[in-house]
């Protein structure tokens, strides 16, 4: 949509979401969605995103939950082709996310921000991080450089390390020095372990939100803004968590249904990065942080 120098109205953003296939009819294959629902229900750790979900989930109940919370096609006989995300749910949850981010800004909270989709969603998170930092929030950057080994599809292994995009968006970098997609909760778990052990790392000045109660970490996030396993691990740790998820990533929606994740915004997380700019402007405006740039 054209740059008008103002955030879009709700109906304008809705039209943009549908036109760019961020919501509405999306390119995520239905068969891929159902496979992921089945694997999450079976307890496959890769599809749990670090959440300890109830064992009562079935493929059918996951589908029903995803109809309610994401807006996928409700017909269980629809097993092949594309799927849907309800743009009204996207807008409602985006507003709820904006409300929580706005509260963080007013309270000058301590925040951790991370993405498993660095190729597409990084600009969204960076804009939010800058806005919160400008409002006096502390953006944590723990465990920078922490590495772990992953298996790769064609055999062998590779290292992944935590790196941060300015001003404090965590993501993974490989041995090829490129950022990589991940579902893993392990990096967020490492970040929280460092904070719990008293490690300190922040991208901005101390906002006065350090915890001093005996037995608690000196620094701990009040809010996590993330996706994939980064969000799942934060929610499982009891941190207020808001984030984004595609319709083939049911675990965060299940986490929200179980009360472990506060807000999940359904969207296609793989479109061209510039298409998310109006969504970002709307989110920041809802939070009271829109600066017009």
Textual characterization of the structure:
The radius of gyration is 18 Å and the shape is globular. 48% of the residues are buried. Strand 3 (110-114), helix 5 and strand 4 (138-139) form a beta-alpha-beta unit. Helix 3 (59-69) packs across helix 8 and helix 5 (118-134) runs parallel beside helix 9. Strands 3, 4, 5, 6, 7, 8, 9, 10 and 11 form a 9-stranded mixed sheet that branches. Helix content is 38%, strand content 18%. The protein is α/β, with parallel strands linked by helices. The protein is built from 9 helices and 11 strands. Residues 199-218 are annotated as: Disordered.
- Low-pLDDT stretches are 201-214
Global Rg: 18 Å
Topology as H/E string? HEHHEHEHEEEEEHEHEHEH
Q: Quick one: overall form?
A: globular
- Give me the count of strands: 11
InterPro entries: Phosphatase_SCO2771
Organism: Actinomadura napierensis
Pfam family, one: Phosphatase
Protein name: Phosphatase
